[in-house]
Amino acid sequence: MTPAGSSMGATARAGRRVLISGASIAGPALAYWLRRSGFAVTVVEKARGLRDGGYPIDIRGTATEVARRMGILPQLREAHIDTRRCTFLNPDGSVLASVVPHAIAGSAEGQDIEVTRGDLATILYALVRDDVEFLFDDSIDTLDQSAREVEVTFRSGEQRTFDLVLGADGMHSRTREALFGPEERFHRYLGYCFAIFTMPNTFGLSREIMLWNSPGKAAALYAVGDDEVHAFLNFHRPEPPSDALRNPDAQRDLVATTFAGAGWKVPGMVDAMRGADDLFFDTAAQIRMPQWSRGRAALVGDAA
Questions:
Q1: Which 8-state DSSP code applies to residue 184?
Q2: Mean pLDDT of the chain
């Protein structure tokens, strides 16, 4: 596959080597534009392959135009979820209100696109995989910069040199830690934790969201198709649960304890979470930094 829009200027840069850490959303998207400009791009990803799951993503406004320029708008429209109803529930599970999603999202019906995170990642990967080198099941171990290049040692032990290194490895970026120091310097906790996972759709839901709330807690079932639903359990906590962030068993215990005695479908959701193999647990937070680059390395996306 030859990138559309290549130019003589891009050809002159073909010898420039760029390493991107992270093959989720920001990494492959960045890889596309760098490769289109003539750079030789390598993407390293600690997972063994593309990761599925996660929450649905809205593509609207400027992002729609970017997708059009990348040539993936038809695939995104085909993968559009088309959520048709959003129902808000009281603590006892009774219906408070039911509205069309456009009424609360401020979107333009028929124009904005919503796709699962997994579908978006797959589409972006397919766009660049023939022109970009991917190194799965590996990660950056150390970075050693000079005025002219960056020497990278990977977790696998391999050593290579690049002209630029870009961290697109998320909120808990190892690249950021290597460049700027511990995450605690830049992480601003916003007071909430969340758990996301998929579970069987035993509720008869289709292309709709159901949201349950009680003080300090919320749960949601997000039906993308007919077979399974995305489940969300969110809760307030004054301090971040530092001990649980890297311990899946502790995460499950914390969520179960927090939602003990909750109504509606929450007990069944907690049971499903216990056995989910795609549980994603994290805190609602921001990364705040005075600068996003240092020498020949920089951060993009959630890492920044």
A1: G
A2: 90
